[in-house]
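Progress note, project year one: complex with iron/sulfur cluster.
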Amino acid sequence: MNTTRHNWTKEEIIAIYNKPIMDLLYEAATVHREYHDPNVVQVSTLLSIKTGGCPEDCGYCPQAARYHTDIEGNDLMSVSQVKAQALRAKSSGSSRVCMGAAWRNVKDGPEFDQVLEMVRTINKLDMEVCCTLGMITENQAKRLAEAGLYAYNHNLDSSEEYYKEVISTRGFEDRLQTIDNVRKTNVTVCSGGIIGMGESIEDRAGMLVALSSLNPQPESVPINALVAVEGTPLEDQKPVEIWDMVRMVATTRIVMPETQVRLSAGRTEMNREGQAFCFFAGANSIFAGDKLLTTPNPDVNEDMKMFELLGLKPQKPFIKKMQPQTVEAENSEYQSLGEKPKWTRPGHVIERNLEASQKEK
Ligand code: SF4
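Model obtained:
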């Protein structure tokens, strides 16, 4: 068995990415079989618990308040709404619910308390619970862990260099800081990125260097293909070619053999053959449900038909790690600290972000 390395260089990763596709697929599939059952795929359902109105300027995101998109914003969902959706997800084969809120960072207060209650509620349904809420402090990570959180998602998005071409309202180092805060608990880390934003292969490799050098490496790495949404700065980007996706998945599998590589946004653009190549190359997780936060996703019945056709089985929850215990709010050993951390605001100008925010609808 290979041993997991944390010292991959950009040059080594580029060389893997550019291998003849038959060699790349063979190598990735071999690593995949050493570490995982190739016929089992983990299924997550992504719920947007608070949509739109985000103060950040991520160039790919229709939820940023400054861009003129057709997204309908929503206040934070209630715990009972979330519970109903989680039960539906469970009955259609999902083992994990991932709750996303369009926030820059978590603020202590009633809304965070409500999210903690959602975490407790879903964990009690014996499903893995993941949250993606923006930047969090160590204390907030500990409170989420105590509520029964299984995973925290915080994507690096791209290489450190290209990140500056996409987002100007926060720094790459803050992403790493949040991941570090999560690592002070027993919550697993989900962190990946997006391809198709105009980045080079060097940038894709740079992102994989950053992710693979984390020790431990993230337990889950989502690979998204940009869904170019009208009104966002990246609206004119061309769709990602399937072979770029396959190469990215295969390279991720080779440099992070133990992680679950997640096929995320952009699956509606892929046919079954393309997705089958991604599974062969080492993808072993998908998002199910008709929407990924705000962008379209294949229908769950279609996914189940694809699983049947390919002989894939959905992974049961808590196979990789034991179910966390939920501590009720009244027994919590942590308090809301009301911290106001100084997350970075680099504030450099990204022309296309500026133009998109100034455009008339
Ligand atoms: S990706 Fe997240 S942080 Fe960035 S604008 Fe969208 S919701 Fe806000």
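Residues 102 and 187 are 21 Å apart (CA to CA).
Residues 21-35 form the longest helix (15 residues).
No further modelling is planned for this target in the current period.
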